Amino acid sequence: MPDLSAIVKAYDIRGIVGEQLNSAVVRDIGAAFAEFVGRCDGVARSPAVIIGHDMRDSSPGLAGAFADGVTSRDLDVISIGLASTDMLYFASGRLGLPGAMFTASHNPARYNGIKLCRAGAAPVGQDSGLDEIRMAVEGGIESGPGSGGVTDRDMLADYAQYLRSLVDLSAIRPLRVVVDAGNGMGGYTVPAVVEGLPLNVIPLYFELDGNFPNHEANPLDPANLVDLQAAVREHDADLGLALDGDADRCFVIDERGEPVSPSAITALVATRELATEPGAAVIYNLITSQAVPEIVAEHGGRPVRTRVGHSFIKQRMAETGAIFGGEHSAHYYFRSFWRADSGMLAALHVLAALGGQQRPLSALMAEFSRYAASGEINSTVDDQRARMAAVRKRFAARDGIQLDELDGLTVRCPNGSWFNLRPSNTEPLLRLNVEARDTAAVEVLRDEVLALVRGN
Asked: Is the whole model's pTM more than 0.85, yes or no?
């Protein structure tokens, strides 16, 4: 059996197909998941599990093996076939059933994985079920045919209609939009979502191809935005949208071909959501721009800071009743979407905001961009704890410094600059994010911290 501790991550299961992830182990994971949801989803045993998959060559076979595991435990399977991750969450929320999505998101073609949720799209992470499932598989799963059956169900039209019901675009001015699906699931879902809207969509790489022949489906890497930026300029488009492989994240490019910070998108969507419910809570993670809590408060909302990671965001949303949550990584969470993340829903909000007024996107977003930022800088280190301690010691000795350790180390300076330094859970890395009033101030603080981290 493959080493499950190597593929069970903080929020999902992910590994190299054949070496770490194969049909046998996936079948056992399916059986263990069926037993898990039978115990945790209330008094009544969950009658079925929803399964969706992306366009990777290995996804249909692995999804079938998982279904075998589920049905072996006398639960039924509802197969929704090709799906984006947020479409799987929609199905879980709409049908009130647990779900499994087969995808490795933005990872290269040789990878695949499983994102699991309980009924109502409630997350299953390392501390909320994944470890329990891993231990059950490691302990041995008895094989058997079981009495469960498999039913196919197409959820695409319902998913698209539901998203359109949440954001009214009927009265916006016509917009020209370039969408780069990166050969991922956006090529399947976007046409259904935008059908009938006043949008001229120019598609890039909508052909479903899990080998990603044009570029990696990872918009977080600037190299993967180059084609979209060029197309926005070439077509004189109003904006560009870039989706990752499983289409649950969406990055935005303005009319000049410049990337828009996900923090600015978070602030924009927050103001729109707060307009429907003044005083509501909005969740933001601790490496999101300081502009987000400022703007939320200015619009009468209640900003709530949390750790990085979707399980923490969703947990705090449930605890606070928050209407919306956003992360620096372009994950956007909506109470109206079962507190799950949907890049497509965030994109509809951007389109509605842009199309509801006459300014270009760069002018609109200037209202929500207040500070300069370094972006995330990774450093390979031999001793994460020692390097973190050295940074803490240096800054703790200074007057006016505020420290907190909610997630890694966050240091706030008297001049308004701040940084967060976090260790990776899976690699010997420290991740640095710096924000300040201007680029020069970012560079000064960045260079000082990196010198301590890297021992220069």
From this structure: yes
Write down how long the chain is. Answer: 456
Give 103-124 pLDDT, tens digit per residue.
999 899 999 999 999 999 999 9
Of these residues, 72, 84, 92, 105, which one is catalytic? 105
First to last CA, the chain: 43
**DSSP per-residue string spanning 355-386:** HTSSS-HHHHHHTT--SEE---EEEE-S-HHH
Residues 6+ apart with CB under 8 A from 20: 2, 3, 6, 7
* Closest listed residue to residue 187, CA positions, set 209, 220, 161: 209
Strand, helix or coil at 192?
helix
Is 128 in the active site? no
Residue recorded with tokens 């199905």: 91
Q: Is the Cβ–Cβ distance between 228 and 254 less than 8 Å?
A: no
* Torsion of the alpha carbons at 358, 272, 238 and 245, rounded to the nearest 10: 180
User: Does residue 20 contact residue 2 with C-beta atoms inside 8 Å?
Assistant: yes
- For the beta carbon of residue 88, count every other beta carbon within 10 angstroms: 30
How far apart CA 84 and CA 247 sit, in angstroms, is 5
Q: How many helices (H) and strands (E) does the chain have?
A: 15, 23
- Assign 3-class secondary structure to 247-289: CCCEEEECCCCCEECHHHHHHHHHHHHHHHCCCCEEEEECCCC
Cβ atoms of 148 and 208 closer than 8 Å:
no
Give φ, ψ of 370 to 5 degrees.
Answer: -115, -20
pLDDT tens for 209-248 read: 999 999 999 998 999 999 999 999 999 999 999 999 999 9
Helix/strand/coil (H, E, C) string of 216-257? CCCCCCHHHHHHHHHHHHHCCCCEEEEECCCCCCEEEECCCC
Q: Which of 387, 388, 444 has the alpha carbon at shortest distance from 416?
A: 444
What does the pLDDT read at residue 426?
67
For the record, the structure tokens of 244 come out as 């990752």
Distances (CA, A) of 217 to 223, 245, 383: 11, 5, 32
Considering only CA atoms, which of 126, 137, 9 is closest in space to residue 65?
137
The amino acid at 285: N
* Distance, CA of 241 to CA of 244 (rounded, Å): 10
Q: Over 80: is that where the pLDDT of 42 sits?
A: no
For residues 45 and 444, give the distance between their C-alpha atoms in angstroms, rounded to a whole number. Answer: 57
Pairing verdict, β 409-412 and 402-404 = antiparallel
- Which 3 state secondary structure label does DSSP give 347? helix
